[in-house]
Structure formats: structure tokens, C-alpha cells
From TrEMBL:
<keyword id="KW-0560">Oxidoreductase</keyword>
<dbReference type="Pfam" id="PF03807">
    <property type="entry name" value="F420_oxidored"/>
</dbReference>
<keyword id="KW-0472">Membrane</keyword>
<keyword id="KW-0812">Transmembrane</keyword>
<dbReference type="GO" id="GO:0004735">
    <property type="term" value="F:pyrroline-5-carboxylate reductase activity"/>
</dbReference>
<dbReference type="InterPro" id="IPR028939">
    <property type="entry name" value="P5C_Rdtase_cat_N"/>
</dbReference>
<keyword id="KW-1133">Transmembrane helix</keyword>
<dbReference type="InterPro" id="IPR036291">
    <property type="entry name" value="NAD(P)-bd_dom_sf"/>
</dbReference>
<dbReference type="GO" id="GO:0055129">
    <property type="term" value="P:L-proline biosynthetic process"/>
</dbReference>
<feature type="domain" description="Pyrroline-5-carboxylate reductase catalytic N-terminal">
    <location>
        <begin position="50"/>
        <end position="138"/>
    </location>
</feature>
<feature type="transmembrane region" description="Helical">
    <location>
        <begin position="6"/>
        <end position="26"/>
    </location>
</feature>
<comment type="function">
    <text>Probable oxidoreductase.</text>
</comment>
<protein>
    <recommendedName>
        <fullName>NADP-dependent oxidoreductase domain-containing protein 1</fullName>
    </recommendedName>
</protein>
<comment type="similarity">
    <text>Belongs to the pyrroline-5-carboxylate reductase family.</text>
</comment>
Length: 311
């Protein structure tokens, strides 16, 4: 395999785990907080993150194994839709369910990973269209198809796609030993190299991607009807362990000044479009670009998440 491909793929896996992990972390935190304010749980509401994987080639398999090994996601909360479910031998003795029904997967999942080949995407989108739950986050690995086109094909714009900045440097070698994600995730050198916003492995995720992930966290708070000040406290709690209270995030860091100034503390943030977060310059992008110290805190939080065994 071409080394660059290995680099890109390993990097993707690792970051997927990160985003799932943090999503889950937030769900739990929100649950604890809502329990504190005794918000009744509506019928049909569920607390644990439900992860759908569409496609079970090399990518889908590695992703599923890494999620089982490195995150707290319950095996019964992972489902896979694949044309050949009988080939999913690795998962027979787990509670991971495999079937071939893309629509059922779409209607069930909170996060849906598209792990199919780029050539299968148009057909898959026809299947999924109008079956995705409203706030289902679709994670696309396909770099060949821009998010805006994918949004049109799916009729759904809650989509995240990794976008890399590749720079030349002399430490790209660290990636060459990496072919399986689970082992990569145990390697401190690779964790260091995969850290968002740092350049050690010659490749990094752009600030736009990091902003989109933070906006997803904000949206999770909004869909749980948390007031803006509670939401900010939760977001700041990521940085707390590594950076204490030095990170000065407020409503203005996330949304425009006119909206932020009139936002009441018990009023939820507005729903943030992921398209805007990935394509346009947002208040958060301006804030992060101008603050090296917050970038360093994000990197530190990432490393500590990745280095802590999940189980
Ligand atoms: C400010 O943000 C709100 C919510 O995201 C948006 O609806 C509004 O159009 C924005 N206003 C300006 C002037 O950008």
C-alpha cells in the first residue's frame, strides 16, 4: 500500500475514536447534569451513543475493532450494515449486530460511519435519503466527495468529513509501522503524531475540523436543552484537567456578537450548521486561530483521552 494512504487511514481511525469518545463523554456528562436538575427522561430517549457502521471492508472492520477496544461504547450499541453479513466472523461472539439493511441502520444510529467505497456512495445515499434520524451525525471517510455534494445526495447536512493539512517533514516514518489501528492506538509515538493541530507526523487536521467537532459538542448540549452557561461549563471541563481555568471560552467564542450578547444564560445555543463550520470562517475559527494556548490545551486533552485506557 502507498505509505501516504496508510498515513491517512491510520490517522482517520484514530480521530474517529477521538470524536466518538468525546461525544460519549459528553452524553454521560449531560446525563449526570440533567439528573442533577431532575429533568425527566422522555419515553424513547436513550442515554448511550448508538454507532452505525455502513460497510465492512478493511476500514469498517478496523473501525469496529478499535471502537470495541478503545472506547466505552457498548458492543450492543454498535450495528453494522453490510451486503455480506455472513463475512463478519470477527463479531459473531460479540453483541455487535450485523445485517444488510442500510435504512434500518440510518434510522437507529446517532453516529453513522460511511465506510463504503467511493463508487458505492451514490447508491448508498439513495438508500439513506430521508431515513436518517434528524440529528444523526454522518461521518464520511470518502475524501473524493465534498461535504456539500454529500449533503445534497443525502438530503441531510449533519455531516463531518476529515480534512487534512499535509506538510513535508522528517518524522513521517512514525506512520510506516502502523497497519492496525488497535496497535496504533497503544503507541504513544503515534498518539503524539496524530494529535490534532500539531505537526509531528507531517500531517494534521485543519482548524476547521477541530471547530466542527467542538460545534458538535455544542449541538449535543443544545439538543439536550441545556442552557448556554451549562453548555459552556461542559465544554470547558474538557480543558480543565490539563489547563485548569485558563481557557477563556464564552458565548462570543462560538457565535456572532449580536446573538451572543442577547443570549440568556438558561437559553440553549442556536443549532450550529456543520456545513458552515467546515466551509466558512466561524467565530470559533477566529478564536482558535488567534489562541495558541487553547490549541495546546486541545492537543493535551486529546492525548490524555487517548492514553487513558477505556476499560
Ligand atoms: C448570528 O448568528 C445567528 C445564529 O447562528 C444567525 O441566525 C444570524 O444570521 C447571525 N447574524 C449575523 C449578522 O451573522
Amino acid at each position: 500500500t502507498h505509505p501516504t494512504r496508510i498515513v491517512l487511514q491510520s490517522f482517520e481511525y484514530i480521530l474517529i475514536c477521538l470524536s466518538c469518545f468525546i461525544l460519549l463523554y459528553y452524553r454521560c456528562a449531560i446525563r449526570r447534569r440533567t439528573a442533577k436538575i431532575r429533568k425527566p427522561v422522555a419515553p424513547g430517549e436513550h442515554d448511550d451513543l448508538r454507532v452505525g457502521i455502513l460497510g465492512l471492508g478493511h476500514l469498517g472492520k478496523q473501525l469496529c475493532l478499535a471502537l470495541l477496544e478503545k472506547t466505552k461504547i457498548k458492543p450492543s450499541h454498535i450495528k453494522i450494515s453490510t451486503r455480506r453479513p455472513e463475512l463478519a466472523v470477527e463479531f459473531v461472539h460479540t453483541e455487535v449486530e450485523c445485517f444488510f439493511d442500510n435504512r434500518r441502520l440510518a434510522a437507529w444510529a446517532d453516529v453513522l460511519f460511511l465506510c463504503c467505497l467511493p463508487s458505492q456512495i451514490p447508491k448508498v445515499c439513495v438508500d439513506l435519503r430521508s431515513h436518517l434520524a434528524k440529528h444523526c451525525l454522518v461521518y464520511s471517510f470518502t475524501s473524493a466527495i465534498p461535504v456539500t455534494r454529500l449533503a445534497k445526495l443525502l438530503g441531510h447536512d449533519y455531516i463531518l468529513k476529515p480534512k487534512y493539512d499535509v506538510v513535508s517533514c522528517d518524522t513521517v516514518d512514525v506512520w510506516l509501522s502502523c497497519s492496525h489501528v488497535a496497535s496504533a492506538l497503544a503507541d504513544p509515538l503515534l498518539i503524539e503524531a496524530s494529535c490534532p493541530l500539531t505537526m509531528k507526523g507531517g500531517i494534521s487536521l485543519g482548524l476547521n475540523w477541530v471547530c466542527a467537532v467542538l460545534y458538535i459538542l455544542l449541538n449535543i448540549c443544545t439538543s439536550a436543552s441545556l442552557g448556554s452557561s451549562e453548555a459552556l461549563l461542559l465544554i470547558k471541563s474538557i480543558f480543565k484537567e490539563k489547563c485548569g481555568d485558563t481557557v477563556q471560552l464564552n458565548a462570543h467564542s462560538f457565535i456572532n456578537s449580536s446573538y451572543a450578547s442577547s443570549l440568556l444564560s438558561d437559553e440553549p445555543f442556536p443549532w450550529i450548521s456543520l456545513m458552515d463550520a467546515q466551509i466558512r470562517e466561524t467565530p470559533l475559527l477566529r478564536f482558535l486561530s488567534s489562541s495558541k494556548s487553547v490549541q495546546q490545551c486541545l492537543s493535551a486533552a486529546y492525548k490524555s483521552q487517548m492514553e487513558t485506557p477505556a476499560k
